[in-house]
Specification:
Elements (H helix, E strand, L loop, with lengths): L5 E3 L8 E3 L9 H18 L27 H20 L1
Antiparallel strand pairs: 1-2
Length: 94
């Protein structure tokens, strides 16, 4: 009887094991989609695009050494800010 070999899922932080002789890299569609999103956001950041929506960053790039760069474009920032406020208000009502 042949011994089945296993390997770890290729997704960051996932410890699940999958059969080694198959072509699949990830244990589930969730891990695959999570890694796809990480790669997509990394490519967008390298191209100086907003990692969330893929549009150009509309904030100027600073020459300062210790400057903290903005993470998202102004449209995404406003969206997440309003979403956070709405969630915060809902939590206060509950």
């Amino acid at each position: 009887m042949a011994k089945i070999e296993y390997r770890k899922c290729a997704a960051y932080g996932c410890e699940n094991k999958i059969v080694k002789n198959r072509k699949q890299l990830y244990c589930s569609a969730t891990c695959r989609e999570r890694m796809k999103a990480i790669r997509r956001r990394g490519k967008r950041i390298r191209k100086n695009l907003c990692p969330q929506c893929g549009k150009e960053m509309d904030f100027p790039v600073s020459d300062h050494r210790n400057k903290v760069y903005t993470s998202y474009c102004s449209k995404c920032k406003l969206y997440y800010k309003s979403r956070y406020k709405d969630k915060f208000k809902a939590d206060l009502r509950a």
